[in-house]
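Appendix B, example 12.
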Amino acid sequence: MKLGRLFDKHTCERREGIQNTLVIMSLALASIAVILTMVMTTPVHFDLDIYPQLDLKSVEATSTTPPTTQNNNASTEASTAQNSASRSYANSVFGIKLEYPITWSAFELNSKFRDNATYAVALLRAPLDNASDKYAEKVNFNMQDLKSKNVTLDGYTSAILNSYKNTSGVKVLESSATTLAGQPAHKVVLTDDRVDSLKLKKMQVWSVINKSKAYVVTFAAEESKYQDYLPQFQDILNSLGITSGSDNPQEKTELPFDDPTSGIKLQYPSSWAKIQIGQPPRSNVDLIAAFFHQDNRNASISRIGVATQQLVSQNVNLEQYTNNQLKAIERVNATGIQDEQTKIANNPAHSAVFNLNGTKVMQIWTLKGDKAYIFAYQASPNDYSKGLATFQKIANSVEFK
């Protein structure tokens, strides 16, 4: 089945819309903030590069070179230590881990394309430079399940390069051998004129793992900004590690989330997608992650969010923090506020349920060390009960490290 059907006929890129993306917003009250889930009104579109038109059968037919020995468990650790300028991303379904700039956003897609063999794994997106910036530089991660289980890198590369020769609007500038996550790989640098009013420059790197899976990483930028963003992409690429992943990605039911910066671990359902929102520099509020249901992401505003806040003083206790949180909730005109003491990860906590701007919200907060941890769930009043069990299950799975 040809992958060309994955692309929009005008831009040759599939645009995956994730509407009403969750953003967790901090509302300051003295030195203490209330973290609320808010819904964006503007849809967010992504360009999910895969490759040009490519027939899997032709790829497999050209893979005639002798077998090569590869490490079945090959992986590389992140090349740079976790620090204030970077954040970790891991996807256990597809077996990738990496680090990326903390100001970028990471969107977990785990979506199968129409060919039933190709998956959009994740997308990293840089912040726009300013209000007039029309294109957010990005890095796409994709995996293709090679049905014959006998595909070589040379055969796969030959098929892609031949296909690029017949793709209008694409010009290959460089083609060379390289490595990806410690494995033999190939890369191309190309220009792409297929997007209206934009000239893009891209680097695409792919590797065939165990003759059965192809991992493809694509960096795309406006041509005039390519060199400026290239060092960040190289750092991402150098940090990439690939493990075996799942043989049946869509059969996974519970996925781990482990954030070293915040010191928090939890489990979330594979039917919910994860977003790690880019952080503004030197912010005392860290929007760790947001989760939304894959199937209802365009029709429902149900969202789950996790955030931390750096406390200005370790002398602040839970009662003081709770008083300020409740006051801040009142100040945003929330109604029907009900609050009570609770626990999370065996840590004393407090929860509040309230109505806000036509939605129903539950928040749970606790203090650990010099941070406040805030867990929030937001939904329409009619859908609130549907996702509440998922929120409670996520909250019950939380571990502090």
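The first strand starts at residue 14 and ends at 18. The helical segments are 56-62, 153-165, 226-239, 318-331, 384-396.
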